[in-house]
Amino acid sequence: MPGRTVSFHPDDRYAAFLRTIPEAPFGEGRLAGVPVAVKDNISTAGIETTCASRILEGYVPPFDATVVERLKRAGAAIVGKTNMDEFGMGTTTENSAFWPTLNPADPSRVPGGSSGGSAAAVAAGLVPLALGTDTGGSIRCPAAFCGIVGLKPTYGRVSRYGLIAYANSLEQIGPMAKTVTDASLLMEVIAGHDPRDSTSRDCPYHHTPDPEIRGLRIGVPEEFFGEGVDARVASVVWDAISLLERKGAEVITCRMPSMAYALAAYYVTCTSEASSNLARFDGVRYGPPADTKKPWHEAFQERRREGFGEEVRRRIMLGTFALSSGYYGKYYAKAQAARNNVRADFERLFCDVDVLAGPTMPTVAFRFGEKSDPLSMYLSDILTVPANLAGVPAISVPCGKVEGLPVGLQVMGRWMEDERVVDVAYAFEQGRSA
Amino acid sequence: MTVIVGLEIHCQLDTATKLFCGCSTDYRDDPPNSHVCPVCLGLPGSLPKINKKAVEFALKVAKALNCEVPEESEFARKNYFYPDLDKGYQITQYDKPLAVCGYLDIEGDEGEKRVRITRVHMEEDPGRLVHKGGADRPKYTLVDYNRAGIPLIEIVTEPDLRSPKEARRFLNKLRATLEYLGVFDSEKEGSLRVDANISLAGSERVEVKNITSYKGVEKALTFEVTRQKNAIRRGQKIARETRHFVEARGVTTSSRSKEMEQDYRYFPEPDLRPLRVRNWAEEIEIPELPDARKLRFIKDYGLSPTHAATLTGDWQIAEFYESLPADLRVSTATATWVADTLLGELNYRDMSIRGVPLDHFKELLLIRQAGEITEKAAVEVLRSLLDQIRDTGTCELPRQCIGRLGLFVITAAEEGANDPVTAAAREAIAENPQAVADFCQGKKEALNFLVGQVMRKTRGCAKPGDVNRVLTSLLSGDE
Ligand SMILES: [Zn+2]
User: Fold this and answer.
1) Are residues B317 and B355 in the same domain?
2) Residues B63 and B165 grouped into a single domain
3) B83 interaction partners in chain A (CB closer than 8 Å)
4) From CA A91, how far away is CA B292, in angstroms rounded?
5) What single DSSP character describes residue B96?
6) B389 with B440, same domain?
7) Which residues of A touch B87 (CB under 8 A)?
8) Among residues A190, B163, B351, B352, which is most buried (max CB within 10 A)?
9) Residues 6+ apart with CB under 8 A from A308
10) How many helices (H) and strands (E) in chain A?
């Protein structure tokens, strides 16, 4: 029925949204009239899409991302665009060019990032469903920090068409929700082959979560409880794993030596790709225009210097350096070799176990400004980046609290076995509430 | 001093749609930025999708150039900033090109020559800058992205060419080959761009960029050979540099050497999967190519190697020749008419075979063959038709033209009639009493002179046999 809208006037006290649609149209389908929040790096036709960057202010895409098309086809109402770290570069949403988002679990703390707005919107109950994107943990980290469910699908399972690229070879769009069932439902709507995305696979997701995990082999890599992991977080996560064991799963400790290089491989790869992806923002075609009175290269420089935030500029510089001739072999090529090692580690482990489990984040949510130097911030991604490097599915499900702050259990699965990680998360969620 | 030349040739592949999106490639007469979409504009979030037809076209080229096709080929990003480059990088191929190690045989300065092909790869064309308000100091510059994403192939040769003329011959042969394959239209403006590397043995190599025509290649290289030779003679060192060809002035000018040091930061394009090309190439069939067709023309039509080479050196001409009736094809006269007369007249007018209605010329040939016009008249008609096309873009039908010019053959009637041939013969006899007298004294040359006079009076439209017969009969009647 045309002309129907959802009225959306949320009390956005955590500053989760960059913009909302007060009267959001919706259609027929399994999500008819369900309000869905969309991260601001996903293109929405007719709705400003900025990646929380000044350089894209005023950019209104002329087309919908494939996932948005799918949401609309399922009847969903797109009610707003959520805040994020600029271009997805961050772990706290503090790198938004506009404003920080607060963690509904404790407003003195960050919601995690980069999909912090989506996580906060769901955690605060403003929307039941939200889309996030995950390049190195950007769905799972804020899900863990805010106490909700977030799934990073297998690379290729959800179309990236319309996702404004940060690091193409690593990122996926994924569902965020309060429960595993809702996340699975949203996954069902957005997954599937898209001929417009050459990296998309023809592997639709039709699944009802099943809590039966008897006989399931869960691998627990020692490295996931190594240096830097808060002992209280580790303890809560071990409790969660024990619960799964009581439900009939077999727990096997194992090793993942490639973890030693995973973070370096991740940052070299993502900054390299980003340095290229972000080259198009030059003020010629969208965003605030470059000064056309100046020679083009000066105008470009000025626009990019003013339009990008500090962290974005830092990553562009790092990536540009890593790809430079004379350094390519030392950095980019080496990162790809390390990435292959991570993949090989997963393949080897998945011969003996069905899923891998551990904490999503080494700590609970940080206080604002707590991680002031970039390196310690980068280190907090250590547990989430392996799944992106290998392209395998990974889910974060709330598994308890440390001093009132949520902790996430991360479950990683074999390539294209998103259903299985959803089942394990569901088994935990059901077992915990039972 | 030995001249050493290698070429890098960019050709637009003649596909219906662009390399990574569905936009039409037929943009030349349309308003700027009217053949664009999120993909070829590089809008954030858009993703490239490979045009299989373009890969097929490129693989045909690889096969025709006798290249090795690897198992897998990959796209890469070439990163640099320029206002015509909408993504800030060009999708091209780097360390895994589509094809390597081929060759093309050409007619070299010293006979048959094999020019080695280093590699063939695919890439997208950038947009186009339009400078407004004077070329030297433009007031402002506009960008047109209609061209952005047009599929290109880059063909790189080894430095096997030894003169500007050889380079030109190589390009002609390459163009013919690409057009035989049906993957390239050389007539489209900007469809070919050449960078040439040229050095004199023992000296540094100079790269000449921005050559956009076949003649330009020979001109630019000739200019460079002279410039470099003169410099060496004066004891100067040739600097390793990039120069630009200024077509209008026929010279090359030094461009800032900074350009050579640009670091393109190539890396594999993460938005496209590698192409499995070897099996694909094996399945692709390519048509008969110029060399094979030339041999067939010699064998089947009994043509001379020179005529056969000319007639097969351009796909359109070869097709035209083969559309003629079988009995015409085997005649040397036809071959001469097409290869020498038709092409010669076109060349004289700087016209291309593509702009002319070949059916007209086929008809003209048939009329001539039927004896309705003389050889001389046929050339006159051809010239008139070509002039019309050059001046107005269109021309009369051949019969119309022949009629208007009064060039149909005039036949003499039976004895005693007052037809134009007899009338002209009577005039000639009356005006040349000395020749008549000479003839009567048995001088045969006198008759030839009189025949010539009659032919002139009938503007070449009388049949020589008729003229002979009528003159002889009139002269013997006068006795
Ligand atoms: Zn397009």
Assistant:
1) yes
2) yes
3) 282, 284, 296
4) 65
5) S
6) no
7) 279-280
8) A190
9) A53, A54, A55, A86, A278, A281, A316
10) 12, 13
Is B375 domain-assigned? yes
Burial of B463 (C-beta count, 10 Å sphere; 0-12/13-18/19+): middle
pLDDT tens digits, B110-139: 989 999 999 999 999 999 998 887 666 777
Nearest CA among A416, A434, A419 for reference residue A210: A419
Evaluate whether A209 touches A180 at the Cβ level (below 8 Å).
Answer: yes
Beta carbons within 10 angstroms of residue A45's beta carbon: 16
DSSP assignment of B373-409: S-HHHHHHHHHHHHHHHHHHS----HHHHHHHHT-SP
Q: Report the separation in Å between the CA atom of B269 and the middle of ligand 1, taken as the mean of its atom positions.
A: 18
Whether residue B163 lies inside any domain: the answer is yes
Counted residue by residue, chain A has a size of 434
- Structure tokens that stand for B46 in this block: 């858009």
- The amino acid at residue B326 is A
- The C-alpha angle B74, B78, B84, rounded to 5 degrees, equals 125
Would you give the DSSP letter of residue B184?
A: -
Pairwise CB contact (< 8 Å): B271 & A284: no
- Residue in A163, A169, A328 closest to B45 by CB: A163
The sheet carrying B76-79 orders its strands as: B89-92, B76-79, B267-268
Alpha carbon distances (Å) from A261 to A139, A345, A383, B96: 22, 12, 12, 27
The answer to whether residue B346 sits within a structural domain is yes
How many separate domains does chain B show?
3
Nearest CA in chain B to A166: B45
Which residues have C-beta within 8 Å of that of residue A240, sequence separation ≥ 6? A357, A399, A400, A409, A428, A432
**DSSP element (H, E) containing B472:** helix B464-478
SS3 state of residue A38: strand
Distance B26 CA to ligand 1 centre (A): 12
User: Is residue A216 a contact partner of residue A249, using CB atoms and an 8 Å limit?
Assistant: yes
Residue ranges making up the domain that contains B265: 3-283
Q: In this structure, are B379 and B432 located in the same domain?
A: no
Contact B81 A63 (CB under 8 A): no
Rg (CA), chain A: 20
User: What is the rounded distance in angstroms from the CA atom of residue A126 to the CA atom of residue A171?
Assistant: 26
B259 confidence band (pLDDT: 50, 70, 90): low
Q: Where among B349, B381, B405 does a domain terminate?
A: B405
Per residue in B363-419, pLDDT (tens digit) is 898 898 888 888 888 899 999 999 999 999 889 999 999 988 888 887 766 665 677
**CB neighbours of B81 closer than 8 A, spacing ≥ 6?**
A279, A282, A297, A300, B88
Q: Which two tokens stand for residue B399?
A: 């019969």
Q: Which residues contact B414 (CB under 8 A, 6 or more apart)?
A: none
Residue B124 and residue B182 in one domain: yes
Are the beta carbons of A285 and B270 separated by less than 8 Å?
no
Instruction: Quote the pLDDT of residue B1.
Output: 81
Question: Which tens digit of pLDDT belongs to each residue from B428-479?
Answer: 888 988 888 888 888 888 888 988 888 888 877 788 788 888 888 888 775 4
pLDDT at A2 over 70: no
- ipTM surpasses cut 0.85: yes
Active site annotation includes A138: yes
